[in-house]
Amino acid sequence: MDENVAGLLSYVFGFVTGIIFFVLEKESRFVKFHAMQSILLSAAFLVLSTVLGFIPILGWLVLLLLSPVAFVLWIVMMYKAYKHQWFKLPVVGDIAEKQANIQ
Q: Which of 18, 20, 22 is nearest to 38 (CA)?
């Protein structure tokens, strides 16, 4: 499978496909980077959504605004991976890059 397709697919089902591609990929740092970034990004959104869900009214409103932003970011990340670009998000991208180099 081409690196750009594997990178795109690592974002499709969030941390699930991220974990699959991170574990299965042995050679491509590009795929491992995008897989780890997908895992971390999905985990961050999951934690943030859970916390905001417990805050009545204000948390729900913020979550309502955050959801479309998360969706657009998800689409952008898939597009960048498909175009074979090392698009690093702040904080998450640095961690993903370190993990891709270590493994």
A: 18
Other beta carbons less than 10 A from residue 93's beta carbon = 17
Alpha-carbon distance 39 to 51, whole Å? 18
What domain range includes position 96? 3-102
Each residue's pLDDT tens digit, 59-97: 999 999 999 999 999 999 999 999 999 999 999 999 999
Instruction: Report the number of distinct structural domains present in the chain.
Output: 1
pLDDT digits (tens, 9 = 90+) for 31-57: 999 999 999 999 999 999 999 999 999
Measured CA distances, 59 to 10, 90, 94 (Å): 29, 23, 28
